[in-house]
Structure formats: C-alpha cells, structure tokens
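Saturday, quiet lab. Running sequence design on the structure tokens for the scaffold JK sent over.
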C-alpha cells in the first residue's frame, strides 16, 4: 500500500478523535501526554469521593495540567460551565500551575473562545490557559513520528482501516434545504451524492405516493448515473432537462421539492479520508412551501 500523505494522515487522525467519547477520549489524551512529555506526564483517574481533583493528567516537572472532555454535540453553556469548574478546581487543589490545557474533540464556538479570553484569562494572569480543539489536537499529533501517531490514536496508519462514515468537522450543524425549481438546481446535489435520503408528506393518496416514490427513485438513478454522464456538457444538460420535467410533474400535482447535502467523511480502506455526501430530499405540498427549510 502507498504511504499515507500528511494531509490524509491529519484527516485520519481527526476521524479517530471525533468518534471518541468519555473514557476513550481521556485514554487517547493520556497517550498524547505520554508522547509529548516523556518521563514527566502522569495520567490521573477519579478515585473515590474526591474524584480526580479536577485534573485528568499533569506534568509534575513542567507544571502543565490537562482537562480532557469530549464535547461534540454539547450545549455551549454546559461547555463553559465545565471549563470554568475544572479550571477553578485545578487551581484550588494544585500548586504552581503554569499551564492549564483544555482538550476537546470539538471545534470551540466563538462564544466559548470569548468567554475564555475575556473572563478566565484576566482572572488568572499567572496561568497560561489553552484550549486544544479538534484541529489543534490533530495538528499537534501529526507533528510526531508516524509510530507515535499510531500509538496515540491506537491504529496502524500503514494498514487499511475499517470503512466508516463519520461527521465532517467542517460541516455546518444544520442542513439547509432549498427549493428545487429546475434540474440545474438539483443536479449538483444529486451528482455529488454517495447516499440518498427521502421524506414525503404522510397524508398522500395511493396515486400521490406512487408519483412521489417514482420521482424520488428517478432522482436517485440520475445521481447514481452521474459518473456515466461525466463531464459531457450535452449529457449534463439532458440530465438537467429530464430532472426539470420530473419537478414540473410534481408541481402540476401540488408538490414541491426541497433538497440539501449532508456532508460527512468516509474513512478507512485504501484512501484514509474522502468526502461522503448524502442528498437529503423532502417533498412538501405546495400550500406548505417555504423559501428554505432547515433540517437538523
């Protein structure tokens, strides 16, 4: 197998970090600490009623303290409360804290960054307060030797990995569904899709259900045939005209189509990471039509 390039390795590392939760994420961060601070880093785990003394791992010599918390999908107020509580507890229970580093497998929202910079850092000017989110963690890990990277994320990056679809950390949190009026609107979504999700009204008659189902299946077939259509402008225009006719048929029967793309990543196999897009299509009655519909 060809060597994994640096960009693919970083995406592979991000993919591994994203899927970790709870103790699995803390274990991974312990392995990172052991590689970054050999002979100094000490993992810490909760023991009895005193817990972990607000310290998930630290370096007694360098006086660097770590708080590891998998925050993906967590509300902003809970993340802020966790950061505030862990920092306060660490400073109360440990002496000479030079660096306090919060580790998370999420990308911190701007509101959390402002909270740390505007509220926490002025309160503790003698402590370097850092947040290592997903991108920073991946960058720091990828600076290390390949064998160190493999130990931290617990895989062999030189071997094909199990294929899985994971969230794209750069994707927006909501899928915006836009009104598809013409084939040229829908074609970019269908032609880049690796999977298809459909939704239609629940109160349809048998004839309406059959029309919608047949139309959605035709959309799917066009998406799956996009490789055959290829880069030929003539074939693309023919595909778009055919899709326009399908949309017009739905419109004549009182329906409209909204569509968007759910962005993910596929990891594993020969190529460690690649885009994985799912087309999300929703059929609504024209009377319920909106300019754009968000879908979580």
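Result came back. Writing it out in full:
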């Amino acid at each position: 197998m060809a060597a994994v390039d640096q960009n693919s390795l970083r995406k592979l590392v991000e993919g591994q970090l994203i899927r970790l939760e709870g103790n699995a994420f803390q274990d991974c961060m312990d392995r990172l600490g052991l590689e970054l601070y050999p002979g100094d880093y000490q993992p810490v785990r909760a023991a009895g009623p005193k817990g972990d003394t607000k310290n998930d791992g630290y370096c007694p010599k360098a006086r660097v303290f770590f708080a590891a918390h998998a925050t993906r999908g967590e509300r902003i107020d809970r993340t802020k409360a966790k950061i505030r509580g862990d920092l306060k507890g660490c400073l109360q229970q440990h002496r000479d804290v030079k660096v306090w580093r919060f580790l998370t497998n999420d990308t911190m929202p701007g509101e959390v960054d402002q909270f740390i910079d505007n509220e926490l850092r002025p309160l503790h000017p003698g402590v370097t307060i850092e947040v290592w989110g997903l991108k920073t963690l991946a960058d720091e890990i990828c600076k290390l030797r390949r064998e160190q990277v493999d130990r931290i994320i617990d895989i062999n990056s030189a071997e094909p990995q199990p294929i899985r679809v994971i969230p794209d950390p750069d994707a927006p949190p909501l899928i915006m569904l836009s009104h598809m009026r013409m084939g040229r609107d829908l074609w970019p979504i269908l032609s880049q899709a690796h999977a298809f999700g459909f939704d239609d009204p629940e109160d349809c008659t048998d004839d309406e259900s059959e029309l919608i189902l047949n139309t959605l299946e035709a959309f799917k077939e066009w998406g799956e045939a996009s490789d055959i259509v290829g880069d030929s402008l003539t074939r693309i225009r023919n595909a778009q005209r055919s899709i326009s006719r399908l949309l017009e048929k739905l419109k004549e029967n009182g329906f409209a189509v909204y569509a968007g793309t759910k962005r993910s990543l596929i990891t594993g196999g020969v190529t460690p990471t690649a885009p994985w897009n799912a087309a999300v299509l929703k059929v609504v009655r024209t009377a319920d039509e909106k300019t754009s519909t968000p879908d979580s």
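Notes for JK: Residues 48-52, 291-296 have pLDDT under 50 and may be disordered. The first helix runs from residue 6 to 18. Ask whether to fix the surface positions before the next round.
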